């Protein structure tokens, strides 16, 4: 028997999308968030067609499109010479090939659009400032003051909902650090392309840059090898950590080095991924998004997978009992997540290649036309979630 109510732990992208997707099927949700105020940390994100298609179905895309940027292309560029290596067309091409737009925006912009839609929906109720030690569904029912059929854990890498799923995945530090900062368009160096997403590639590190139209700024993410024992994300890195970051870009083009040296402050983000584990307890609790399968950002699909997860789970819960829905969900989602993790690992190898491998990479990519490279993305961007 399909459910009537759900508890959602976490009011990030995964949790808010889940609430809207459930409401679309007439299912009410109680969303529990430990923060007193929703202020999305981080910086920009890329919303690929497989995710924007879902946002359109949920009525959120019309809010985003006037303020986000739809880049003309995704460019791969040498971090040492600044010479172009390859590109994948976006813009109108993305609409024609994948049936939905490719956009870039600040995380806060997407979260606000989702939050406004949730707040306006009578089937969604948000509980902020709930610092609860979640052990079972009953604890949430006491707060909601009504029966809740299931619990959806959408609270990220350090999920509290993990306690409700025996054998849940556990976080593993990847050995990579992401440094995030933004630069006003008026202060950005000329190498940053105002209409495109650009990935600068170099040995053991890479740099992703793209415009955030609503902020008139560029979002910059510098990813390097590093060490960390901290769970703190988004904090300003100390001097030793910044020096470690800059060493990762030694030998890069001087303009990039100067740009990185000038950034005070830059946010320090240790990157964690999830080891294999159970996504649900077989009865009334399931994990989605980063809480289930956090992955490296080398395929730029973290937010998209959270959106897909939420949408497809809601559709299955609307048609099946929780036990059946959980099994169907995992059967459909697990192969896609595994394939994307493999793609992210391959991209890391390719982006951070050294010596002869780097030369071969540049040659192979330069010989492939943009449309051929776009075809390689069909299985990601052309995916049509079932909801």
TrEMBL record:
GO molecular function: FAD binding; monooxygenase activity
TM region positions: none
Keywords: FAD, Flavoprotein, Monooxygenase, Oxidoreductase
Annotated InterPro entries: FAD-bd, FAD-dep_Monooxygenase_BioMet, FAD/NAD-bd_sf
Cofactor entry: FAD
Any Pfam family the entry gives: FAD_binding_3
Origin: domain of life: Bacteria
Domain FAD-binding: 6-343
PANTHER family with a match to the protein in the record: GERANYLGERANYL DIPHOSPHATE REDUCTASE (PTHR13789:SF318), MONOOXYGENASE (PTHR13789)
The protein's name in its UniProt record: NAD(P)-binding protein
